[in-house]
Every structure is written in C-alpha cells, then in structure tokens.
Amino acid sequence: MAIDSIAALLSQTEESGLPLWEVILQEDLAEGQSTREDSLKQMTRLWEAMKESGDAYRPEERSRSGVSGGDSAKVQSAMESGRLYGGRFFQEVIAQALRISECNACMKRIVAAPTAGSCGVLPAVLLPLLRSGESEEEILHALYVAAGFGEVIATRASISGAEGGCQAEIGSASAMAAAALVQIRGGTPAMCAHACAMALSNLMGLVCDPVAGLVEVPCVHRNVVGAVNALSCADMALSGVECRIPADEVIDAMARVGTEMDDSLRETGEGGLAGTPTGKAIAERLAAEG
Ligand code: SF4
C-alpha cells in the first residue's frame, strides 16, 4: 500500500518507537516488493549515483540549445574570490544545485529526485554535508525520509510539472530535502513534517514554464531556489518554528492549485517565461535550427 499521509507516518513513529526513516523503510517492505537488504542496497545505489551525478560537469560545455552551461563554474570561481554572501556551505549548495541541473541540461546521467527537472535539489544539500563530514549512514536514513515524504506528495498530489506546475517538481524536491536535512540534524519526526510543509508552502503556485519546452530555463536556476528554500525551512523547523497548516493539508492545497492552473502554465512551454518575447525568440531560433 502506498504511503499516503504524513500524519499517519508520524503516528506510526510514535506508536512503534522506531525512527521515522525505519518506519518508512518498513512501509516500503510491506509493499512486498523487496527485502530489507534489497531496499538498503537500492537506496545505497541511488546515493552512489547521486554522488557521481556532477562528476561529468565541464565548465565550457553548453546544452544542445546553447542556453545552459557554465553557471556553476561562475559561482565556484566567485566563491574563491570571497565576494559572495552566505557562508561556505551555503555557497556550495548553490554551486552544486547548478552543477547537477546543468549536467541534466547537457544530457548527462543524473538521479531524478523526484524528477529530472528537480534533480539538483537533494544532492545540492546532501553532497556539501558529506564533504563536511556527515556520515553516509545518516545520509541514507535521510534519503528514506525524503523518499517517504515524496511518496506522500506523489500519492496525494503530484510530482509532475505537466500535472501540477513547478510547485509539484521543485516544490516537492525542496520539501523532501527540507525533511531530510532535519532528519540529519536529529530533529523530531514532527519537525521533519513542519520543514516539509513550510518548503512546499513557500513554493505554492510556482508555474511550469520551460522556455522552448526544454528543461533548462528557468529549471536550472530554480533548483537553486529549491535547495536554498529547503535549508531555510530545515533551519526554521530545527529552531522550533512550526508550519501553521499541517503537512497533509499543504499537500492537498498544492494539488488543488495544480488543478486550477491554466494549461499554458503546466509544461506546455507557452505561458510564464516561455511566453516572454525572449522566451519565444529562443523557441523560434531552435525551431529554425531544426
Ligand atoms: S519549470 Fe517545469 S520543467 Fe522546469 S523544473 Fe519546473 S516543473 Fe520541471
């Protein structure tokens, strides 16, 4: 049975006395498709692939459209010059989100988490943590929390830009990452839920408007927003700040907003940024180039 409620996950955690990630793992096993060993192996493989997803990045490389590439290298070099805001960790999150999303735009191997368009968000927050000494085991546990919360979002609402707008892609990835970050810092399951709810609330209504229908503009830069939003919401939750609307209700609201969104704002490449004069000119140029 699919996990369909964050409230249910929290009560199962309370009743069983098990950690949240373990409850999600047990739910995964209850679906009967794998053994505990298989599930852990599969999650480890996914994490290994995530770690490698930025390795093929080349600063000089551009996507086939010529629109994407090189931005992560710009941030990296500005970091070295010391003129950016935020601390080193925050800057690394931005550079990493760009790096992996640019790899996706250049057709390199990435992990859809939950989608290819939002592939930079989770690794953007997890890889800098690994580099700063976080244990692989803690990160694996956090990935279970992210996966469990992502499954609830997919079940109650959507993780597809074509169905629910970018709130369903970058918003969901951000919510999953926020919950994962709280888990890593030892926050309670309720704090994970608040972080998830706040992250999704903050991106509620975000439309899907890819220029020329390509997962490049605004997708690459929105991965940064998803990652930074996740950090802010995790920090708020860890400080005891609570989302005033329960997570399941936020997800249901996101589903309704997605349904109410005009078709032009759901991955058709017509509305929003895709409909600007420059967005249209890029689309026309690419169409002329065949
Ligand atoms: S704008 Fe659309 S295609 Fe791009 S990341 Fe968001 S949902 Fe995906």
Shape: globular
DSSP strand count: 0
Percent range for β-strand residues: under 5%
Oligomer: single chain
**Structural class assignment:** mainly alpha
Q: Give the integer mean of the pLDDT values.
A: 97
Low-confidence stretches: none
The number of domains: 1
N-to-C CA distance: 45 Å
Helix content: 55-70%
Bound molecules: iron/sulfur cluster
SSE succession = HHHHHHHHHHHHH
Largest sheet at a glance? none
Please give the count of helices: 13
Radius of gyration: 19 Å
Set down the secondary structure blueprint.
Blueprint: H1 6-16, H2 20-30, H3 36-52, H4 71-81, H5 88-105, H6 121-131, H7 136-156, H8 161-164, H9 166-184, H10 189-202, H11 219-238, H12 247-260, H13 277-289
The protein binds iron/sulfur cluster.
Residues 117-118, 161, 166, 169-170, 208-210, 215, 218-219, 222, 267 line the site of iron/sulfur cluster.
Description of the molecule:
With 290 residues, the protein is mostly helical. The chain contains 13 helices and no strands. The radius of gyration is 19 Å and the shape is globular. The structure holds iron/sulfur cluster.
